[in-house]
Design goal:
The protein is mainly α. It has two helices and no strands.
């Protein structure tokens, strides 16, 4: 591992990491993109709202 000298290098190294264990539907990805977030915060790290429930539970 090399030493990073600037914050830009650190952020680009962090953004290059992929987290395949966090499945996101196309709708969730779109909601994350519209929501935005702090500068430099990767999309997979942002909190996304849960998708709506398709059916009401029986009472």
């Amino acid at each position: 591992m090399t030493a990073h000298t600037t914050l830009d290098e650190i952020f680009s190294a962090i953004d290059a990491v992929d987290f395949p264990d966090i499945p996101r539907s196309a709708g969730e990805k779109g909601a994350q993109a519209r929501q935005g977030g702090k500068p430099g915060l990767s999309q997979h790290v942002r909190e996304a709202p849960e998708p709506p429930v398709d059916e009401e539970p029986e009472r």
